[in-house]
Write a structure and sequence with these properties.
Chain B: It comes from Mesorhizobium huakuii. The complex is a heterodimer. Chain A is an alpha/beta fold. Chain A folds into two domains: about 1-70 and about 170-260, P-loop containing nucleotide triphosphate hydrolases (Rossmann fold, 3-Layer(aba) Sandwich), CATH 3.40.50; about 90-170, no CATH class. Chain A has helices at about 45-50, 80-90, 100, 110-120, 125-135, 155-165, 185-200, 210-220, 235-240, 245-255; strands spanning about 5-15, 20-30, 35-40, 60-65, 70-75, 90-95, 170-175, 205-210, 220-225, 230-235. In chain A, a hairpin with a 2-residue loop joins β9 (about 220-225) and β10 (about 230-235). In chain A, α5 crosses α6 and α6 packs parallel to α7. Chain B has helices at about 15-30, 50-60, 75-90, 140-145, 150-165, 195, 270-275, 290-295, and strands at about 35, 65-70, 95, 105, 120-125, 175, 180-185, 200-205, 210-215, 220-225, 250-255, 260-265. Chain B has a seven-stranded mixed beta sheet with strand order 1-9-8-5-4-2-3. Chain B has a three-stranded antiparallel beta sheet with strand order 7-6-10. By secondary structure, chain B is an alpha/beta fold. In chain B, α1 (about 15-30) crosses α2 (about 50-60). In chain B, about 45% of the residues are buried. Chain B has eight helices and twelve strands. Classes of the chains: A alpha/beta, B alpha/beta. The interface of A and B includes residues 80, 107, 109, 123 and 125 of A.
C-alpha cells in the first residue's frame, strides 16, 4: 500500500441538457478501500458510477487513476483503446442485472475465460484451469462449467459475473446494486462472498446501492447523494450511527426494522 | 454473342466499376479490412455470388481468361451460369483449367492446383464479418476491429473445445491477416486455409448483400487462429478419391444409392479430370477412359 490514492475525482458533473445527473462530486479512493454511494433512485449515483467507469463522459470535472506503473492518468483524456483495455484488465464492472455483464449464450467457463483471452492468453488448458478455480471461489460447482448462464439461478449468475470480472486481478471494481433483485438469504451469501473476496484480494471498490445494510456490511466509507449532489460523506459507521444532514437522517430512519 | 452491344463491357457501367475498383484498392492497401462499397443490383439473387460477380466485372479485361467454380466444381449451376454471363457480357475466354485462368471466381473452395503470381482469386462471400454471430451489433464489431479486440473470437474456439473436445469449426475458419485484422475466409473448408498463407495470387473477397469488399494481397501472412495446446489442423481423409486416387485433396461425399452406398471424390472437378487423363484410377473409376464416350446416347 502506498500513501497515494488510487482514484482522484475532482468536481465531476454530468448534465443531461438542463437536468442534473450529478453535480460537483469530488473524492479520493484509496487502494483496498470500499466506498459506498447511497441515495434514493434518481439521486445521480448510477450516473456518477457510469462517469467514473468511463461508460459515460462527464460534462465537466476530472478523474485521474493511478496506473500499475504508479503514474496518474486522466481518464477522460485517454484514448478509447486505452480505456477499454483498462476496463478489461485493471477494472471490473458488476452490473445489477447479470445479463448485462455476462454473455448469456456462451458457457460459464468461456465467460470467465473471455478476459484472459482478450489479454492474449492462448492456452486452453490454463484458461480452463483458471476458470475452474474461479468458479469454486465463487461457490459454483465445477460440473456447471460448460453450462450457459441462462441455466443459472439469479444468485449464481451474479456470482459468475463477479468471477468473470475478477479473473484478471483488477484493482478497482465498480458495482451497481450488486445484490438488487436477489432474495435475502442469497443476498447474505453474496455479501459474505464479496466481503471475503474484497479483503483477500485487497480490491478497491465503489458500490452503488440504495440498501444501507449492504453499504454497512461492505464499505468503510460512504457518500450520501441527493438530487445529484453529495450531501454527506464519511466513515460508514459514523454516517449511519450519527447522520448529520437532514436527508441522511431521513434515510437512516426509513430503514425498516424487522 | 451478337447482342453484346446492348451491354456495357462486363455488364456494370464504368462509374460503378471505378467505385468498386477504389474499394478493391483500399482493401489491398489494408489487408483483411472490410471496405464498404455501394453494391449494385445484379441480375441474380443475393446469395448467388452478387459480390463476387461485381468484383470480377470490375477487374476483368478483354484478354482475361475466366474460370468459375462452385464448391470446387466447374459444372454446377452457379458456376456454369456465371461463366456464361461473363462470356456474354464481356466476350472473354472461359476455361475450366486452373493453370490457364487469369481470374478464378470461386464459391467456397480454393483450387487444388497451386495458384501462381498474376492470377486473381475472387471469392463470393455471404457474411464477411467473422465476429457477427458472437456480436450482432455492427457498430460494436467495427470498434472491435479498429481496436484489435479479438478475444471474443477465441471465446468461440474455447466453446468448441469445451463442447466437442476439439475445435469443431470446419469451414469459415477465422484467420488473422498480416498480424492485424481477423478475417472470415468465406465458407471455404478450413482445409484451404493454409493455401491462403503467402499465396502468390491476389485474393479478393466480395459480399454483395452485406456490401463489403476485402482483400489479401499476394505473399501476405494468413494465420488460422488456434490455442497453443489445440493447434490448428486441417481435415484429413482416410481414403483417396474414388475416381482419381488423389490423396491430400479435399473430398466430397457422394451418395450412390439409398442403401448407404457412398464414395468420396475430389471436390475440385478440374483437378480430378486432369488426374484421370494422366491415367490415375480410383477404385470406383469407370472402365471407359473418357467420360464423353461413356455418355454416348444409346439411340
Amino acid at each position: 500500500m502506498t500513501d497515494e490514492p488510487l482514484l482522484r475525482v475532482s468536481a465531476l458533473s454530468k448534465f443531461y441538457g438542463s437536468r442534473v445527473g450529478c453535480d460537483n462530486v469530488s473524492f479520493d479512493l484509496w487502494p483496498g478501500e470500499v466506498l459506498a454511494v447511497v441515495g434514493e433512485s434518481g439521486s445521480g449515483k448510477t450516473t456518477l458510477l457510469n462517469c467514473l467507469s468511463t461508460r459515460l463522459l462527464p460534462s465537466s470535472g476530472t478523474a485521474s487513476y493511478r496506473m500499475r506503473d504508479g503514474q496518474f492518468r486522466e481518464l477522460y483524456r485517454m484514448s478509447e483503446a486505452e480505456r477499454r483495455f483498462l476496463m478489461r484488465t485493471d477494472w471490473g464492472f458488476v452490473h445489477q442485472n447479470p445479463a448485462d455483464g455476462l454473455r448469456m449464450t456462451v458457457s460459464a467457463g468461456a465467460n470467465v475465460g473471455e478476459r484472459l483471452m482478450a489479454v492474449g492468453d492462448r492456452h486452453y488448458g490454463k484458461i480452463r484451469a483458471t476458470a475452474v478455480d474461479w468458479l469454486s471461489r465463487v461457490e459454483i460447482e465445477q460440473d456447471r462449467i460448460d453450462d450457459e448462464p441462462r441455466a443459472f439461478s439469479g444468485g449464481m449468475r451474479q456470482r459468475l459475473q463477479i468471477a468473470r470480472n475478477l479473473v484478471t486481478g483488477p484493482r478497482l471494481v465498480f458495482m451497481d446494486e450488486p445484490t438488487g433483485g436477489l432474495d435475502v438469504s442469497v443476498q447474505a451469501r453474496l455479501l459474505d462472498l464479496l466481503r471475503g473476496l474484497v479483503t483477500d484480494l485487497g480490491l478497491a471498490a465503489i458500490v452503488v446501492t440504495h440498501d444501507l445494510a449492504v453499504a454497512r456490511l461492505l464499505s468503510q466509507r460512504m457518500m450520501v447523494m441527493k438530487d445529484g449532489r453529495v450531501v454527506e460523506s464519511g466513515l460508514t459507521d459514523r454516517v449511519l450511527d450519527d447522520p448529520r444532514a437532514p436527508y441522511t437522517q431521513l434515510l437512516v430512519s426509513s430503514i425498516l426494522q424487522v | 454473342m451478337t447482342d453484346i452491344a446492348t451491354y456495357n463491357f462486363a455488364y456494370l457501367d464504368e462509374q460503378t466499376k471505378r467505385m468498386i475498383r477504389r474499394a478493391i484498392l483500399k482493401g489491398i492497401a489494408i489487408p483483411g479490412y472490410q471496405v464498404p462499397f455501394a453494391s449494385r443490383e445484379m441480375p441474380m439473387p443475393y446469395g448467388w455470388g452478387t459480390g463476387g460477380v461485381q468484383v470480377t466485372a470490375s477487374i476483368i479485361g478483354p484478354d482475361d481468361v475466366l474460370k468459375v467454380i462452385d464448391q470446387g466444381a466447374d459444372d454446377t449451376t452457379n458456376a456454369v451460369s456465371i461463366r456464361a454471363f461473363f462470356k456474354k457480357v464481356a466476350n472473354v475466354a472461359v476455361t475450366t483449367d486452373t493453370a490457364s485462368a487469369t481470374i478464378i471466381q470461386t464459391r467456397h473452395r480454393i483450387p487444388e492446383h497451386p495458384l501462381t503470381a498474376g492470377q486473381v482469386l475472387v471469392y463470393q462471400v455471404p457474411i464477411p464479418e467473422p465476429l457477427r454471430f458472437l456480436e450482432p451489433r455492427e457498430t460494436e464489431t467495427r470498434k472491435m476491429h479498429a481496436l484489435e479486440e479479438y478475444g471474443l473470437m477465441h471465446v468461440k474456439l474455447y466453446e468448441d473445445i469445451a463442447k466437442h473436445g476439439r475445435i469443431a469449426t470446419t469451414y469459415a475458419y477465422p484467420v488473422k491477416v498480416e498480424g492485424r485484422y481477423v478475417m472470415d475466409p468465406s465458407p471455404t473448408p478450413k482445409f484451404d486455409n493454409p493455401k491462403m498463407h503467402r499465396s502468390p495470387a491476389l485474393q479478393l473477397f466480395g459480399a454483395g448483400r452485406e456490401k463489403r469488399i476485402y482483400a489479401v494481397p499476394p505473399f501476405t501472412d494468413v494465420v488460422s487462429l488456434d490455442f497453443e495446446d489445440h493447434p490448428f489442423e486441417v481435415q484429413t481423409f482416410d481414403q483417396p478419391c474414388a475416381l482419381c486416387a488423389a490423396e491430400n485433396v479435399y473430398l466430397d461425399e457422394v451418395i450412390l444409392d439409398d442403401h448407404g452406398g457412398h464414395m468420396f471424390v475430389c471436390s475440385d472437378t478440374d483437378h480430378c479430370e486432369k488426374r484421370r487423363e494422366e491415367g490415375h484410377r480410383g477404385h470406383l473409376a469407370p472402365e471407359i477412359h473418357l467420360a464423353s464416350e461413356k455418355m454416348e446416347p444409346a439411340q
